[in-house]
Write a structure and sequence with these properties.
GO biological process, one term: regulation of DNA-templated transcription elongation
Keywords: Kinase, Transferase
Order of helices and strands: EHHEEEEHEE
Protein name: Nucleoside-diphosphate kinase
Largest sheet: 5 strands, mixed
CATH superfamily of the largest domain: Transcription elongation factor, GreA/GreB, C-terminal domain
GO molecular function: DNA binding; kinase activity; RNA polymerase binding
Structural class: alpha/beta
CATH class of the largest domain: Alpha Beta
CATH topology of the largest domain: Chitinase A, domain 3
Pfam family, one: GreA_GreB
CATH architecture of the largest domain: Roll
Distance between the termini: 59 Å
Number of domains: 2
Strand content: 15-25%
């Protein structure tokens, strides 16, 4: 049948709507990360209830399914070892002559600009298990990272 004889509201010509992809692996979170997930679920539930547009409501419901899945699979990680870089650590390190401090958090809590990087990021993976004074290979370079300090993220931070 010619496109000229179709109704404009036929769904077959629309882009398919896919579920939001879940990050692979275990859903480790800090207490702050779990609170962020809970807040997003509450915000989306209210938005779904208030939305009258069918298409926007469908998008909100899809987002809500994602956050419900993240909430139901969230596991608060145990505190990291005191002197070892792990999930939940605040790490100060030197890379390319610059000193930086980052916190290793869950995927949903990550905000790289704020120094919160996911524990699955290449930088976090490279540093995991390191101790103060260790030199770590990174980005194809030997001893590219020097760990200067590591400590558990403070409760106020997490």
């Amino acid at each position: 049948m010619s496109v000229a004889f179709r109704r404009e509201d036929d769904d077959e010509h629309k882009e398919p709507k896919f579920e939001l992809p879940l990050p692979p692996g275990q859903n480790l979170v800090t207490r702050r990360g779990l609170a962020k997930i809970e807040a997003e679920v509450a915000r989306l539930e209210a938005a779904v209830a208030a939305e009258t547009g069918e298409e926007k409501r469908a998008t909100l419901k899809r987002d809500l399914r994602y956050w419900h899945a993240r909430f139901s699979t969230a596991t608060i990680a145990p505190p990291p070892p005191k002197d070892e870089v792990a999930f939940g650590s605040c790490v100060t390190f030197r890379l390319n002559g610059q000193t930086r401090t980052v916190s290793l958090v869950g995927s949903d809590e990550a905000e790289p600009a704020a120094g919160l990087i996911p524990f699955t990021a290449p930088l976090a993976v490279a540093m995991t298990g390191a101790e103060v004074g260790d030199l770590i290979d990174f980005g194809g370079r030997t001893a590219a990272i020097e760990v200067l300090d590591t400590r558990p993220i403070a409760e106020a931070e997490s």
